[in-house]
Amino acid sequence: MQFIDEAKIYIRSGDGGNGCVSFRREKYIPMGGPDGGDGGRGASIIFIANPHINTLSHFRFKRHFKAPSGEGGMGSNKHGKSAKDMYIEVPIGTQIFDETGSLLLFDLVDYGQEFKILNGGKGGLGNTHFKSSINQAPEKATKGIAGEEANIWLKLKLLSDVGLVGLPNAGKSTLLSKITSAKPKIADYPFTTLSPILGVVNISEEEFVVADIPGLIAGAHQGVGLGDKFLKHIERCGILIHIIDITTNDLIRDYNMIRNELKSYSDILSSKKEIICLNKSDLLNQEEIEERTKLMEDHTKNKIYIISAGASQGLKPLLKDVLVSIRNKEH
């Protein structure tokens, strides 16, 4: 599946309906006064956050959105109907930018949150409004005001409590599949995960959301391997779980590479709380595990978690400590 996390679209709100020029015409009142109604308001365009949408892929084929116009006014002082506002559904975490893609207009981060980006045009006035003592039969009405239009960028940043980071094939997808009900694609080759995947962990009658971010490689912050697109999602994760393949030839190199990419992308990423896990421990003996654990402890000055996602080993202690870290960030 191609991951779509940004889209440029054209939007236009509805025009206001025109006012009506009309005169009262009844059997015994041949020269009745003006009775032209007003035009209806055009539809506004409103973005709304929908938790059941996960990507911006539906904008791949539909990029133009034109809201309906209001109805024109009619005789007998009948006003035209206003058009129903157009709602455009986007995933939670969608940011709306101007045409340049640099000015943030709004950030939809809550369920059901709305943002009215364009107002519909006002309806025109019927000739009833222009009657005066001087002009008893005005033949003047105004046109409805045209709707607004804009080209905008939609950019998605996933919202999650925890982000899984690491080199390709470190075991992030396997871990996600073991601790949540998410079903990411898993295989023994790099870049199996082509888009961020969310899963919910249930533990101690509480829950938190985990995002599996596609494997990063050197140069990710510059866009290598779509890395810059994936790194933006980690900015909204409260905590990072850094997964490292314990069987790698150079633990320090692999660890430093990911840390350098995070730091190069933004200070926000490099300052997030990091929980370090050495994965695939079932492939080594105890002596090798202890030796590599000490190496990482000395280098990072942090606690190192030894796990095997494939064999479901060491996962409960990890999740309990993650939950504690999430609680501490909330207070």
Describe the structure.
- This protein folds into two domains: 1-156, Spo0b-associated Gtp-binding Protein, Chain: A (Distorted Sandwich); 160-330, P-loop containing nucleotide triphosphate hydrolases (Rossmann fold), CATH 3.40.50.300.
- Helices cover 20% and strands 25% of the residues.
- The protein has six helices and 14 strands.
- It has helices spanning 172-179, 227-234, 251-265, 267-270, 286-300, 315-330, and strands at 6-12, 45-50, 64-66, 86-91, 94-97, 104-108, 114-118, 149-156, 160-165, 197-203, 206-212, 237-245, 273-279, 304-306.
- The strands form three sheets. It has a six-stranded mixed beta sheet with strand order 10-11-9-12-13-14, with helices on both faces. The protein has a five-stranded mixed beta sheet with strand order 3-1-8-5-6, with no helix packed on it.
- The radius of gyration is 29 Å and the shape is rod-shaped.
- The chain starts with 5 loop residues before the first strand and ends with a helix.
